[in-house]
Amino acid sequence: MKKTLILTTALTGMAFAASAQEVTVMSWGGAYTKSQVEAYHKPFTAETGIKVNSVDADNPATPIKAQVEAGNVTIDVADIELADAVRLCDEGLLEVIDHSALPAAPDGTPATEDFLAAGMVSDCAVPSIVWSTVVAYNTENVSGTPSTLADFFDTEKFPGKRGLRKDPTALLEMALMADGVLTGEVYDMLSTDEGVDRAFAKLDTIKSDIVWWEAGAQPPQLLADGEVVMTTAYNGRIFNAQVTEGQPFEIIWDGQILDFDLFVIPKGAPNKDEALKFISFATDTQRLADQAAWISYGPARKSSAPLVGMFNDGKTEMGPHMPTAPDNLKTALANDFEFWADRKVELTERFNAWLLQ
Amino acid sequence: MALPIYASPLERIWHYTYLLLCGLIFFFLIAPILVIIPLSFNAEPYFTFTRKMLTFDPEGFSLRWYDNLLTFGMLEPGAPRDESWWADVWENAAWVKAAKNSIIIGFFSTILATSLGTLAALGLSRPEMPWRKAIMAVLISPMIVPIIITATGLFFFYSATGLANSYLGVILAHATLGIPFVIITVTATLAGFDRSLVRASASLGAGPVRTFFKVQMPLITPGVVSGALFAFVTSFDEVVVVLFIGSHQQQTIPRQMWNGIREQISPSILAVATLLVIISIALLTTVELLRRRSERLRGMSPT
Amino acid sequence: MADTAADMPTDIVGALRTPDGRPLKQALAQAERRARIRALVLVLPLLAFVLLTFIIPIGQMLSRSLLNDTFSANMPALTRWFDENPGAEPDEAAFEALVMDLRAAKEARTQGAVGTRINYEVPGTRSLFTKTARRADRIEPPYREAVLDVDKDWARRDLWAAMRSAAAPVTTNFYQAALDRKITPEGEFAFADKQSRIYITLFVRTFVLALAITGLCLVLGFPVAHLLAVLPMRKASLLLILVLLPFWTSLLVRTTSWMVLLQGQGVINDTLVALGVLGDENRLSLMYNQAGTIIAMTHILLPFMILPLYSVMKTIPPSYARAARSLGATSWTTFRRIYVPQTVPGIGAGAILVFILAVGYYITPALVGGATGTLISNQIAFHMQESLNWSLAAALATMLLAAVLVLYWVYDRIVGIDNMKLG
Question: Interface pTM (ipTM) of the complex?
Answer without folding.
Answer: 0.89
